[in-house]
Design a protein that fits this description.
144 residues, mainly alpha, 7 helices
C-alpha cells in the first residue's frame, strides 16, 4: 500500500492535468448540448437579441473546452471562458443562494475558480502546450 502511494506522489503534477482534461471535456460537452438542443435555447433565451449571446456562450464552451481538454492554448482557452462563467453566476444563477438542493451556483463558482487557476498557471505536464515547450527547449539546447 505504501508503494502505491509513493508511486502516486511521484506523479502528483499529473493530477493537475487530469483535472484540466476533465473540466475541458465537461465544458465542451456542455457547449455541444447547448448547440444541439434548440428547445433548451428557446427556454433560456426570452428575447431574440439574446440568441447571439447564447450562441457565443455555446461556441466558447465547445471550442474552449476542447482546447482545455487537450492542453492547447490553455491559458487562452481558460481566459475566454471566465467572462462566460461570471455571466452564468450573476445572470443565470441570479436569485439562487448557496447550498441549495441543485447546487448549480456552487458548481459554477467551482468551474470559475478552476478556469482562473488554469488561466494563471497554464496546462500542466500532460498537454500539447508542455510538449511544444519541451520541443522548443530541446531545439534551443541543440543550437547552443
Amino acid at each position: 500500500m505504501i508503494k502505491f502511494f509513493t508511486n502516486i506522489e511521484k506523479h502528483q503534477k499529473l493530477a493537475y492535468s487530469y483535472i484540466r482534461i476533465f473540466l475541458g471535456m465537461v465544458l465542451s460537452i456542455r457547449g455541444f448540448v447547448l448547440i444541439t438542443n434548440p428547445e433548451y435555447m428557446s427556454e433560456m433565451v426570452t428575447e431574440e437579441k439574446l440568441y447571439i449571446g447564447y450562441a457565443v456562450v455555446a461556441i466558447v464552451h465547445l471550442v474552449g473546452g476542447l482546447l482545455l481538454a487537450v492542453g492547447f492554448l490553455t491559458r487562452f482557452a481558460a481566459f475566454i471562458q471566465i467572462p462566460v462563467m461570471i455571466g452564468a453566476i450573476f445572470f443565470v444563477h441570479n436569485g439562487e443562494s448557496l447550498m441549495e438542493a441543485g447546487q448549480s451556483m456552487e458548481l459554477a463558482i467551482l468551474v470559475l475558480y478552476l478556469l482562473i487557476l488554469f488561466a494563471l498557471y497554464g496546462s500542466g505536464p500532460l498537454s500539447i502546450d508542455a510538449w511544444q515547450l519541451e520541443k522548443k527547449n530541446r531545439i534551443a539546447e541543440a543550437t547552443d
